[in-house]
């Protein structure tokens, strides 16, 4: 039985561990945090599967990875639910992009840039909707927006449910999980911690910003999100509210919960969510629908997303150690494609 040792139990680390365990590998997974630690970039995320919405600000490499990942999620989520016995919220009903009248030019510019970056067949997936069209897609927003864009085929996941299901599946496959165990170095055929050495046939580094010292050019980009609960609003798909300074996104979750974010700061500050971010997000959320004024803030979080200058993720073997890193804000959007590439190579 081949043996893999993985440093980092975020999204990429858990997906690799699960796919290899499923293929009959012995898996040893190491992470400095606890299993239920919610401070990592994998937890502080909206988990929107939005190849089209992200195409405006990303290049063709990311878009191609995202297209492949979308197909994989459709297969992997049912498999994971079977392996874990846990439901995972997964939808593909598109993204709705809207703007208030004063910001209509920003919406039109977004649509223009997006269509220019897509091939002709894909341009048909960017559909302009009028006031009744917005209401048909999202009845809770009826009468609030004169125009919008429906990006057909985009989707979303509940990352908390996904990560929990991966944990259960790995336990069922009898994977060895070493939480609270920081990796100090990786060498060909061995992973080193303060507690000792783990020998393995394959060593993989998926530590995100934790691998910064070993990966020149890797930096942290701060992201902040709010999770709110609002029984007065029902949304079926992620909604992006255009603004000249930022794009706010609202990703619906089960039980009338919504993950809200917009901020992206070139900072490696790991501190708590700032008052400014809470005020900006709260104000924009209220402008989307006044019922959000009575929403309860369930959780506030900030984390560092690992990124390289070109914002492309990296999968490579360096001196006998596999590295998967630099997922930036595209972790859930791209990770399955990279994980699939690695698993196929190792198999």
Q: What report would you give on this structure?
A:
The protein contains nine helices and 20 strands. A hairpin with a 3-residue loop joins β16 and β17. Helices cover 32% and strands 31% of the residues. The radius of gyration is 20 Å and the shape is globular. It has an eight-stranded mixed β-sheet with strand order 6-7-5-15-16-17-14-18, sandwiched between helices. The protein has a six-stranded mixed β-sheet with strand order 9-2-1-13-20-19, with helices on one face. The protein has 347 residues and is α+β, with helices and mostly antiparallel strands. It has two domains: 3-85 and 158-215 and 312-346, FAD/NAD(P)-binding domain; 95-152 and 220-307, D-Amino Acid Oxidase, Chain A, domain 2.
Short note summarizing the structure:
The chain is of the alpha+beta class and 347 residues long. It contains nine helices and 20 strands. It has helices spanning 11-22, 51-55, 60-84, 104-117, 120-123, 131-137, 159-172, 275-288, 331-346; strands spanning 3-7, 26-31, 48-49, 90-91, 95-98, 126-130, 147-151, 155-157, 176-179, 183-187, 190-193, 196-199, 202-205, 219-229, 239-242, 247-253, 257-265, 296-307, 314-318, 321-325.
